[in-house]
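Data availability (excerpt). The following record was deposited with the supplementary files.
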Amino acid sequence: MLLADLGSAFLLAALVLAVLSAVTGLAAGRGGDEQLARVARRALYATTAGVAGDRGLAPPLLAAAVYGGQEGSLLYWALLLTATGSVALAAAPRSDPRLAALAGAVLAAIATFFLIVLVFVASPFAVLTVTLPDGFGLNPVLRDGGMLVHPPFLLAGYSAFAVPFAFALATLLAGVEDSAWVSHTRRFALVAWGLQSVGLTLGMWWAYHVLGWGGYWGWDPVENAALMPWLATTAYLHSAQVQERRGALRGWNLGLVIAAFLLSILGTFLARSGILPSVHTFAVSPLGPWFLGFLAVTAGVSGLLRAPRSLEAGASREGAFLLQNLLLVALTGAVLWGTILPLLSGMAGREVVVGAAYYERVAAPLLLAVLALLAVGPALPWGGAGGRLRRLLRWPLAAAALALAALLAAGVRQPGALAALPLAAAGLATCLAEYGRGAVAARRMGSPWPVAAARLVARNRRRYGAYLAHAGILAVAVGLAGSHVWQQSRQVTLRPGESVTVAWHTLTYEGVAQQQAGDHAEQVARLRLGGETLEPGRLTYPSLGGQAVTHVAIRSTPLDDVYVVLVAPADGAAATFAVYDNPLVTWIWAGAALLVVGVLLGNAAPHERQPARAAAAVGAPAPAG
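Predicted structure:
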């Protein structure tokens, strides 16, 4: 009881400090009072200490509380929000204290909402009236390494979106029209995007390895809710370069940052309200209306503060970024519509649910256009290509033509593969061409080539990190296209000694073993694949009403995955299997790893101070988009 009271006291103290920080920060921003600004900043620092103050639980139990229930996950979010906000304010440039003070007020206001929920609605330190001797334990589906790290990364990404949002809103409140907020928050936006990328990939990996349906993305409402802020931030990270270099697209950048944060709150609402059916949602709870109200208030305040709009287009880097914004916003809107359609149609009396076919029909052409921009956009100079467009695009066009010819010669006739893979090859050619130009420049530096190349990359970390991230996204695109277009599957019932062939793989069933392991019973089948043995299993938990989960057996190579599920309990000697051949899935995980390395390299770049309307020379080297 004492530890629970202590934890509640820490949360209440944090709430008081957050309110103090919000009020004093707003006053400091309005009046330009630097002393008040320091008080507000230190109050936010203290709020972080208050949220992190409880140490009563052992680390394993604390970790389980964090992502095992609603209250713990919200406490984790509040901790990361205040910690990230404190770092952002401490690193904020002192040239405009009003902007930092107003941003701190916005961050403290967001923290206040979370702390109100934690103190008055869903306290993580609530005490049960009856002490139970033992619980049921963690849901067996969640007893996987992927689920230990997937939720914390997603929640960290959600909370980090608040920093760019706070500075964007502060810019509108202060009436500032320069690009200082973009330069300061780019790293935080990149961190949020990177965390969300890792979280999404780990979620896909978990679904692929645990759920046993042969896929990794089901267009589930909560999956969609996590994807939408990632799409909006992808657009912002590229569009921000236009404002930094050319002083344009300011309205776009403010709108994209605000949209990313609002979409992260929408995702939290969907996950915690239980209003839409999803494998990821919590049970129906009183938190839903609170988050819906917070979303409405935040959207209303953001909508009242409008920014001037400016556009630059044409065959130029900024024109490519503008087109990319339109495509990603359209894709986000399509996913948003499909996600909330059951809710809206249910209000009208007849619930309508769209399936994967809707998302694939809508998303496929938009994603193909984005792939084309990955090939073309980085090759274009700032300000316009003039008459050099054909020469600038010769490498991606040649790579696309070569890839298309190779696919046709190999007998490929699926439209999806013939469209996506040549575009991915074109994008990779653009990345390699940029690295090739860097290698040529390194040879002219006088030092040994490896040393010169390392120095060149070190001086242009942001640029080469972006190209590495592009290469990762292209690898992911290849994996998505290959596994979607060429997947083959069969469901068969086999007796020992019988075989099944899927694609060019033949598996021979050898038998099944049964054993008791802790709180569950296991059936493990053995199938021979060449010189390897695959052992898919089925685990049954009597203490959970006979709940059964699958243990998928996967043999992975760069070309394909052989994916085997024990579908039904073995009946005597016979067993039923679902066998999949999933081409190029490994490229998804490898591409995601490349993307993360690119993000880390780009975020290690020194801070760049550029004039708002730098007259970038046509054809001058520029960071990749």
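Summary of structural features: Residues 385-486+589-603 form one domain.
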